[in-house]
């Protein structure tokens, strides 16, 4: 308590104080008791991201910053926020509305659609949310995501255990703990999608092969087999969307010079199980223009994916991509009671009536003196501050 009193510079620690509704239509109930990261049960989410000493650290650090709502800091350590232009050709569609229309047209010819994402660029998750909504009228009603945990015993998978939960449970998986991912799942659930797990089953104590390629290969094989079994179990009026990271969506076979099969999950689903998905990539290129578009494939990418979406690179406001404050979302200041004074805090906003086991509506890492805003739709929220865990040293 003494530490909290110092951090909050005189704020009451009695429990909950309600701030009056602002003109933005956002009402905050502030929990002004400081929460230790360990007490959340998800300490790793609130851990200070690692220092980037070499390129191998950059992706891990960027994903951690993105989970903490600070993609501006992710952009400083990883190049996925910089321009990587697509081939200079006429796009098949330009602007989000045209791109969505083109995707819907293509999806009519497929029972399975696979969409990829960067695990740190949240714009991809928001655009996937729009695709998921646009495909619902075409009998797409099952959503499988790489993030969903898949148990290896008789316990029900989290997607089954929390199927009737009216909010998005943070224990569904790892990436889904991030608020934009949570918003994607929240809308999918509201639209009637059923969630399904397909990831390689985790086996404690499984021997790790000396050759890393074996681990990668075995994971892709198991993912494809699990998806094929899921597809076989679908009813005649059920179509499937699969949300993956990066190359798992690549449907072209990859055989290297010594004959090693590096083919990814989508390729194995197509080749080994006879299921041809519509594959949509959001990670191949970015920033060719200031609007989203579907780019034509270059010669060296021919057959990798059916459609390649080229999004603008992020421009930042208040620590977040500017799009996070569009479409009715408000830039809400951190309440004065929770402004950090001596060290960083993680500020979270939960929808009114939802427990802390829910994925929050937003989460931000705030350092003393920073003007970092929450991105919230009009409504009522409970806001708390979490004291971050120190960075790992191993």
What is the CATH T-level topology of the largest domain?
A: Rossmann fold
Rg (C-alpha, Å): 22 Å
Shape: globular
Q: Kindly state the percentage of residues in helix.
A: 25-40%
The structural class is: alpha/beta
Order of strands across the widest beta sheet?
Answer: 4-10-11-9-5-8-6-7
Major sheet attributes: 8 strands, mixed
Q: Which residues sit in consecutive blocks of at least 5 with pLDDT less than 50?
A: 1-15
Q: Which class of the largest domain in CATH terms?
A: Alpha Beta
Can you characterise this structure?
This protein is of the alpha/beta class. The chain folds into two domains: 2-80 and 317-387, no CATH class; 93-310, Rossmann fold (3-Layer(aba) Sandwich). The protein is 25% helix and 20% strand. The protein is built from nine helices and 18 strands. Strands 4-10-11-9-5-8-6-7 form an eight-stranded mixed beta sheet, with helices on both faces. Strand 12 (316-317) and strand 13 form a beta hairpin. Helix 5 (122-135) runs parallel beside helix 7 (179-190). The protein is globular. The protein starts with a helix and ends in a 7-residue tail after the last strand.
Topology of helices and strands:
Layout: H1 2-7, E1 16-18, E2 26-31, E3 35-36, H2 55-67, H3 71-77, E4 93-94, H4 96-107, E5 112-117, H5 122-135, E6 140-145, H6 158-161, H7 179-190, E7 194-196, H8 212-233, E8 239-245, H9 265-273, E9 278-281, E10 293-295, E11 307-310, E12 316-317, E13 320-321, E14 330-333, E15 345-351, E16 362-366, E17 373-376, E18 379-387
Parallel strand pairs: 2-18, 3-18, 5-8, 5-9, 6-7, 6-8, 9-11
Antiparallel strand pairs: 1-2, 4-10, 10-11, 12-13, 14-17, 15-16, 15-18
